[in-house]
TrEMBL record, chain A:
Keyword NAD: yes
SUPFAM superfamilies to which the protein is assigned, alphabetical: Isocitrate/Isopropylmalate dehydrogenase-like (SSF53659)
Domain Isopropylmalate dehydrogenase-like: 17-341
The protein, known as: Isocitrate dehydrogenase [NAD] subunit, mitochondrial
NCBIfam families cross-referenced by the UniProt entry: mito_nad_idh (TIGR00175)
InterPro entries: IsoCit/isopropylmalate_DH_CS (IPR019818), Isocitrate_DH_NAD (IPR004434), IsoPropMal-DH-like_dom (IPR024084)
From TrEMBL, chain B:
Transit peptide as UniProt keyword: yes
Location(s) in or outside the cell: Mitochondrion
Span of domain Isopropylmalate dehydrogenase-like: 52-372
Protein family (similarity comment): Belongs to the isocitrate and isopropylmalate dehydrogenases family.
Protein keywords: Mitochondrion, Transit peptide, Tricarboxylic acid cycle
Primary localization class, coarse: mitochondrion
Gene Ontology CC terms, in alphabetical order: mitochondrion
Name of the protein: Isocitrate dehydrogenase [NAD] subunit gamma, mitochondrial-like
Lineage start: Eukaryota, Metazoa, Ecdysozoa, Arthropoda, Hexapoda
GO terms for biological process, alphabetical: isocitrate metabolic process; tricarboxylic acid cycle
Length: 349, 383
């Protein structure tokens, strides 16, 4: 498929250019941390930093500056820090704008329990793949009669098929065993029924991957009792949003979960936590989420050796629990945490 | 109890009603006191001192659980007669069930399977809720002390809009390969649910009501729901009102569920959150839900599972259905019978710790039911 042709272009040892969007709040410091770690691991990547603060376009509307769009279109791969969507009218959500601009159709969020950070749930290893463009978030709403509002959930065959194919391909490439389609087709028969049909068709094309379909309520019930029974989950937009956040909660919150958005002609990897303005600039932030997203980016670019080294260094640092940032219950600074990881990488190379 | 009073002094009942309004059961308040909307009182299905209640067993584990309910009622001596109605996919059968519920006013049901997958046939459960206008579903999630669960000491009430929202079942295929499904949110229904929630909080001494929504994305529909909640919150200044986005809520529920008190939300989010909280407390077999409308009430297990995989194997957890029957007895006014059965259930699960496989034990359903009956027979107080 299209995603693989992008990767194969990068087999040579040339330096790959990637766009990095530092973001707001703690964004700049964690982006700097990630860049430092990548330099220590000698990753063949050259960063191109862009700013996506909305500017007023010629038509008066706020939009992403064209320089940023050009950069990501050229490089095809990007890493994004947390963005603050300012409150106010006449301004679209930046995340939504980026998504539409680069046709990012699937959102992948692997949630793995971190050794060294104990939560109520152990051995969680779930990947949620969510359709990113349509579904309940199509934004089509109107007030038909006074006091009656209708919101439309749109499901198309193309989008469902795309995300189902991506899910099975991801499962196969990452040596995972099972894909579960999450739906509510007993109630929303036509819409979720269509999504389910597309998943079933794809399942036939990948006979070595196990496929099952479960109702949303059953998945929620079972996930909270025993998350080890699920492997890869694929679902439409709204269910994906809720379930991916719930899985993140099982492993320790949004500050530890990576996330990747795969598009037709590129990919954008991001950290999904907030900008944390209260600790911005104080060197207290935890770069784990952005770092793990960057590792996902390396895997997407087929730089698996570097990805494994960096990931292992990060997990070992958290497991040792000597240098943990405030949100993980420690007292270390962001720079100390970063230095520890760099030391481990230097030892591994 | 109301039935005894009726038999002794039928004509004085009116005076007693006015004097004893505070001690009347919910059923009597519903049928004997004038409603704000000036609706005519429906005659109570009270024949010879015994209430008549519709029973809809449904599919899967439904019929066996209903059998257990009847057995327990027999031993507890609860004055309730059941009218069993089975529903298939035909509209005629659905109409008959609805007529029966309208006649009796109260029903207890399992989860009904709608065998047909065609888009023209509305889910039977949704059809019953919509036709009878059961606009609110209340799920009181209280931890049982002896049951193994991820979280302890949870006491959350989930109040969920039951008829519209994402379950409006209005779908169409506008173009080949493009399907639209409508989510409908109305001012009047949101108003009724919010008002019910705050009244419930006030009457039961609850401190905080949280509205769960996704109004940052679905600005008009969830925005309307949220604004209605906020507006009604102003009429109850002693109750704190907060709101939270559904994804954040799910994340908080799996790590810190004790911050929630009463939660109010639309249909789909209610389904998700109730399943999450049931999972935290120990599973689908423990909690019961109440569906209320202006005239009718239906009681059912909280997570609405059919349980086809475990049907007939004698391992289904009967506690949910028995809790539903206890709620029903409370609603009808038979408080002493209700408390008797409730105490027996609690003794069986919390003290004797006899659990079915879904709770990690190895007992059969019949063992649990037998132990509950034993507790009832040994109990000192039996009317």
């Amino acid at each position: 498929a299209s995603t693989r042709t992008v990767g194969s272009r990068l087999y040579s040892s040339e330096i790959k250019k990637c766009t990095i969007i530092p973001g707001d709040g703690i964004g700049p410091e964690i982006s700097a941390a990630v860049q430092k770690i990548f330099a220590a691991a000698k990753v063949p990547i050259e960063w191109e930093s862009v700013d996506v603060t909305p500017v007023r376009g010629p038509d008066g509307k706020f939009g992403i500056p064209p320089a940023a769009i050009e950069s990501v279109n050229r490089n095809k791969v990007g890493l994004k820090g947390p963005l603050m969507t300012p409150v106010g009218k006449g301004h679209r959500s930046l995340n939504l704008a980026l998504r539409k601009e680069f046709n990012l159709y699937a959102n992948v969020r692997p949630c793995r329990s971190l050794e060294g950070y104990k939560t109520l749930y152990d051995h969680v290893d779930v990947v949620t793949i969510r359709e990113n463009t349509e579904g309940e978030y199509s934004g089509i709403e109107h007030e038909i009669v006074d006091g009656v509002v209708q919101s439309i959930k749109l499901i198309t065959e193309d989008a469902s098929r795309r995300v189902a194919e991506f899910a099975f391909q991801y499962t196969k490439e990452n040596n995972r065993r099972k894909v579960t389609a999450v739906h509510k087709a007993n109630i929303m028969r036509m819409s979720d029924g269509l999504f389910l049909r597309c998943c079933r068709e794809m399942a036939e094309k990948y006979p070595d991957v196990k496929f099952e379909e479960k109702y949303l309520d059953t998945v929620c019930l079972n996930m909270v009792q025993d998350p080890t029974q699920y492997d890869v989950l694929v679902m439409p937009n709204l269910y994906g949003d809720i379930l991916s956040d719930m899985c993140a909660g099982l492993v320790g919150g949004l500050g530890l979960t990576p996330s990747g958005n795969i598009g037709l002609n590129g990919a954008l990897f991001e950290s999904v936590h907030g900008t944390a303005p209260d600790i911005a600039g104080k060197d207290l932030a935890n770069p784990t989420a952005l770092l793990l997203s960057a590792v996902m980016m390396l895997r997407y670019l087929n730089l698996n050796k570097h990805a494994n080294i960096i990931e292992q260094a990060c997990f070992d640092t958290i497991k040792e629990a000597k240098y943990l940032t405030g949100d993980l219950g420690g007292t270390a600074k962001c720079s100390e945490f970063t230095n520890q990881i760099c030391e481990k990488i230097a030892a591994a190379i | 109890m109301a039935s005894r009073v009726l038999l002794k002094k039928p004509f004085d009942l009116g005076k007693i009603v006015l004097r004893n309004q505070s001690t009347m059961s919910a059923f009597e308040i519903q049928h004997k006191t004038p409603l704000i909307k000036k609706v005519e009182a429906i005659p109570v299905a009270l024949y010879g001192g015994r209430h008549a209640v519709t029973m809809l067993p449904g599919g899967g584990i439904g019929p066996e659980l209903m059998g257990y309910v009847r057995e327990v009622f027999k031993y507890a001596g609860a004055p309730v007669d059941f009218e069993v109605v089975d529903i298939g996919d035909e509209n005629k059968e659905l109409d008959y069930a609805l007529t029966s519920i309208k006649r009796n006013g109260v029903a207890i049901k399992g989860n009904i399977e709608t065998k047909s997958e065609s888009a023209n046939v509305v889910s039977r459960n949704v059809a019953i809720r919509n036709e009878l206008d059961l606009f609110v579903n209340v799920l009181h999630c209280k931890s049982y002390p002896g049951v193994p669960a991820r979280q302890k000491d949870i006491d959350i009430v989930i109040i969920r809009q039951n008829t519209e929202g994402e379950y409006a079942m209005l779908e169409h295929e506008s173009v080949d390969g493009v399907v639209e499904s409508m989510k409908v949110v109305t001012q009047s229904n949101s108003d009724r649910v919010a008002r019910y929630a705050f009244e419930y909080a006030k009457r039961n001494g609850r401190k905080r009501v949280t509205t769960i929504h996704k109004a940052n994305i679905m600005k008009l529909s969830d925005g309307l729901f949220l604004d209605t909640s906020k507006r009604i919150a102003e009429e109850y200044p002693e109750i704190e009102h907060t709101d939270m986005i559904i994804d954040n809520c799910c994340m908080q529920l799996v790590s810190k569920p004790h911050q929630f008190d009463v939660m109010i939300m639309t249909n789909l989010y209610g389904s998700i959150v109730s399943n999450v909280v049931c999972g935290l407390i120990g599973g689908a077999g423990l909690l019961s839900g109440k569906n209320y409308g202006d005239h009718y009430a239906i009681f059912e297990p909280g997570t609405r599972n059919t349980g086809t995989a475990i049907a007939g194997k004698n391992i289904a957890n009967p506690i949910a259905m028995l809790s539903a029957s206890v709620d029903m007895l409370h609603h009808l006014g038979h408080t002493q019978h209700a408390e008797l059965i409730q105490r027996a259930i609690e003794k069986t699960i919390c003290e004797d710790k006899i659990h079915t496989p879904d709770l990690g034990g190895s007992a059969k359903s019949t063992d649990i039911v037998q132990r509950i009956i034993d507790h009832i027979l040994q109990s000192d107080i039996r009317p």
